[in-house]
Design a protein that fits this description.
single chain, 601 residues, 21 helices, 11% strand
Length: 601
Amino acid sequence: MNIQNTIETKVKEGFLALYTVEIPSVEFQATRKEFEGDITVVVFPMLRYKKGNPVQIGEDLGKYLVANVKEITNYNVVKGFLNLVIEDSVYTNFFNEAYANAAFGFIKPRTDEKAVMVEYSSPNTNKPLHLGHVRNNLLGYSVAEIIKASGKNVYKTQIINDRGIHICKSMLAWEKYAPNGSDGQKETPETTLNTELRKGDKLVGNYYVKFDQEYKKEIAQLIAKGKTEEEAKKQAPLLIAAQQMLLKWEAGDTQVVSLWETMNSWVYSGFEVTYKNMGVNFDTLYYESNTYLLGKDVVAQGIEKGVFVKKEDGSVWCDLTEDGLDEKIVLRSDGTAVYMTQDIGTAIQRVKDFPDVGGMVYTVGNEQDYHFQVLFLILKKLGFDWSQQLHHLSYGMVDLPSGKMKSREGTVVDADELMLEMTATARTISEELGKLEGYSEEEKNELYETIGLGALKYFILKVDPKKRILFDPKSSVDFQGNTGPFIQYTYARIQSIIKKATFDYSKAVTIDLHEKEKELLKQLELYPDTIQQAAANYSPALIANYTYELVKEFNSFYQNVSILGEEDQDKKIFRVQLAKKVANTIKSAFSLLGIRVPERM
């Protein structure tokens, strides 16, 4: 519906005709519910170009628009706000087009548009995914889906941190402390006698925790023998053994590399299960073991370009002090790369691998804000045009009422357990409400999972990514208020209405709109623009809160207007169509958040 474009053109024309002054733009907002009108022109910004009484300017423009725009039937001015009444046909014409469009709100990717690569998850292979990864994955996946819906090709990726001292700690602890499994050999996920460790990432994470426990014992023993705490930490035999194992891995020791491959494969199998349960996926994967040497060749080029400077000790730095930052090392004096070098090289490699990529989104916590500021600036200085289209999707921590998490101490909120808890909470609340007659056990379990995961995802995604979240599982599974289950329940309620509509409601009709129908149509009409705004701002929260407003508007319509009980057949047809389109839009919006909707609840 382009009525706003028409009004903007006519307001500019009117301003020129009335005052012989050109204005560059027109500011709009939704008309407040206590005033008559459908769209409001804000007069105050115009005072920069024409001094005068804003009420009088509003009156002059209102008369001009009624005379020159057939779709505007009336107006009123409240202070500096010109409220315009739009005729019903504008909304019914919009609706008939939208109703016939199964992909309403979505734009097909254009061939001339550059693709976007969205990175998220990026876990370590020494432990299972935890609550922090949940927010990361949900944000990254949703932003990728939203950007795709806005008209761009998208590649979903992650870089798996599969090397380093932390990985060796798990490997060493398994070698030293693993009990025998059912086959008499050291336990594996398949043979372990501990049922809680049959998921590979859980078993490996268990040994990461075990390393820390035994390491602390060694430190205590060394301190008891007179060492300082700092000395004890460095001299503990376990840490020295882990460091030696890392050196062997880097040297390609066949035995160490074989164990590394085996234990990583256990973790990947576990991650796959978690990702499937979470409902996220990836198009391509990068591994740190393949990328940690990338970027070293770029350093030489950067020195030639004057972007990097080699110091007397052989280390290479990038001086960013003129840009308000500090000096950043990109190569150590011994010639080894740092994380920044690796990230520079990986970004460049990705564009080589996918030449249509013109921008990247990195979903990483806000503790890395400075790192990405530096990374993007260095890539810009190196002359890559796509560096202008890099975005750090920075997000805040997720806290629980019980406090912070520490993975090496085994106090992390496990992602799998959290999802199971959400399903169990949904089960308890649903059983208390007692509306599941006629459901098989399989149907009930599927519904509990849909509600529980929907509650978790919605609770996390409705909040602006930059904000910290205090996550309360029980309040998120509320069937009232701004929650996933409340929106899912409204969707299921509409499905019930549609099932009862046994007459033919396929034809387009034209009716005089009820006030509640018009309000609902206005909210529906915002969906395409909301997708574009959410993509531009990398914010699933805009989609989540739009959907809540749509559902609130539908429920107000449902409470005030009869649908199936309406005697006028055209009105009844229109209202069923309207309810169906609202349901489809809820489903569409929730798909962008990775949330399923149940056909009945």
